[in-house]
Amino acid sequence: MTILTSKWKLSVVTLFLTSFHTSHALANKDLAKHEQFESDFIYLGAQIGSIRYQHGCEPWAVNCDKRDTAFSGLIGYQFKNNYFIESSFMDLGDINATYFESGINVPYQGKMKAWDAAIGYDLELSDNFYTFAKVGVLNWYGETHSTSQKRKDDGFTTTASVGLKYNFAENWQARLTYQYINDLGSQKIGSSNGHIGWLGLSYQFKRKKQTDPKPIVPAAKPQQTIKEKPVQIPTVKEITKVVPEKTITTLFAFDSSYFVPSTEFNEFLTHIKSYPTTEITIKAYTDSKGSAEYNNRLSKQRAEAIKNYLANHGIDESRITAAFFGETHPITDNDTEDHRKHNRRAVVTSSEIEVKINKGSVNG
Question: Do residues 165 and 248 share a domain?
């Protein structure tokens, strides 16, 4: 390996470790404040790894070094919450071997570079921890040379990877990957299966969603002292009135828990303020887009958004029961956007109650 190549690889390692230290400092921020992001975004990253060429040397080699350090730069696009496409450019290191030829030991060195394009899927294990798998095609460029000859070749093959991802800051993600490359090389320069263990770091260009506005709390009015006057207590005749159950449905935008009250909803709010003994039930739903786990969280956020709105407008939280059902119980199919719009809903109901009202009064 030349001195120039060694210096280049040392520079890449230094840059990788410096980037990791900087991003680790960002992780000291308060991660408890969970921000919502758009599900589609681009990311860039770098990886350092260890590669082993399974059949890197012929059986009659005097000595064989078929392990080396590998480097990779990658770009990807995450979409639909769990799917991603990704492309990498890789320096897959060297193979060094010595063969006994014509009475002397002849050193050989093989070099390999490649780029790949793959599609993958993330499986969420927790809020910030994922496992993933991806498959794709790989275009390799190889070279083998000794003191007397030099041969080059290139071609295509298949590759597959599995690994783990961890979001340790808002935009930073670490990953640990095992990659298998099938039949890397050719008869002209030699062929081998590649096994690589990668340690990577990527930056995600996420866009934040629109957040819920902070409620406006009216200023407290100063208390007034009222002088008590003797009041003649009238004789009141009371009758019982049944206040029927009242229900209102509100719709949400796609992939959003931002609640915008309608005129009808504020009329409903006036109704439940007028009858403070009613019990309020909130049931929130989503359409079928996204994973079931993600939709459960989203419907919970929608139910809580309405509950917070009612509480901020004078409704005692002990009166409110909030439930969420994700993508279950659709009122129509999810085949079209118009149908899905009606499934992104929350149904708010006030219970039936009996109240006593004054029919009239007679002074005693």
Answer: no
